[in-house]
TrEMBL record:
Belongs to the DapA family. It comes from the Bacteria. It catalyses: L-aspartate 4-semialdehyde + pyruvate = (2S,4S)-4-hydroxy-2,3,4,5-tetrahydrodipicolinate + H2O + H(+). This is 4-hydroxy-tetrahydrodipicolinate synthase. Keywords: Amino-acid biosynthesis, Cytoplasm, Diaminopimelate biosynthesis, Lyase, Lysine biosynthesis, Schiff base. It holds the Pfam family DHDPS. It is an enzyme of class 4 (lyase). It comes from Streptomyces meridianus. InterPro entries: Aldolase_TIM (IPR013785), DapA (IPR005263), DapA-like (IPR002220), Schiff_base-form_aldolases_AS (IPR020625), Schiff_base-form_aldolases_CS (IPR020624).
Amino acid sequence: MVQDASPRGIFVPLVTPFTTDGRIAVDALEGLAHGVLEAGADGLVALGSTGEAAALDTEEKAAVIDVCARVCRERHASLLIGAGSNDTRSSALALAELKRWPEATGALVAVPYFTRPSEAGVLAHFTRLAATSPVPLVIYHIPYRTAQPLGAATLRSLATLSGVSGVKYATGGVDQPVLDLLGDLPPQFSVLAGDDLFLSPMLALGAAGGILASAHLATGRFTELATAWRTGDVTRARLLGHALARLSAAAFAEPNPTVIKGVLYAQGRIPTPDVRLPLLPARPASVEAALSVLMHLAVPEVPTAERR
Ligand SMILES: O=C(O)C1=N[C@H](C(=O)O)C[C@H](O)C1
């Protein structure tokens, strides 16, 4: 089994395209997977929230992972697989299943939602999962979806657990706990930006990359942004960061992944823009607005002498 020490770079959490009769459009999924990796993405996420994992049955989930695993194997790319729930015992069983895919470099596991355990309970949950998971865990911290805040001390305890390789950080901004973590990163641990809009500031502060639905679009620009911050090309990074933030804002004008599916459909990359209930398709105006931002995504070259 491939096991990254810690995930780095730009990961695209693939949408799940559907056919006109509501089945998974496997060929389109495979095309998307190849396309974003070809365009420079470092890895894929199968079964993220962007992939509408909550609306897929067990067989469909396996089909999605099969496609992503095959493409990642062929292209030597990293593969994170979304797994787990708000119950520790069934999350451990779901993680154990990932043995079936030796291509998996990690599992993306959300902080237990809805139950609202104490922070100590969250730590106990991940301690148990990390002890038995066949792959390293990337903790998905998204309190506006889970209703479970985590303070700096708990985050640090989670980051130092053996078997935890990173956090997808999506708290809706750059806050004190993530500054604390990035200011003194535990070894073999990555912070990945999970809010598309805050990718650039997070990279500037030392995030190792991001898991970003909007990187389906202009994928190469997202990887360019990560490279620019990593290599200290600050002027270029700022320009790219602002341009891509405009794209992300347009892509998230309605619940994810509805606008992105609308854009991918308009680009002819998926056979329908369909999403499963309770999601509703994005309004045409939102899709057109995102297409327009994408079309005008001009990032001027800055002469070397003017770079600061
Ligand atoms: O599926 C994911 O992983 C992502 N989900 C977030 C969300 O839907 O809130 C957005 C992020 O870009 C990636």
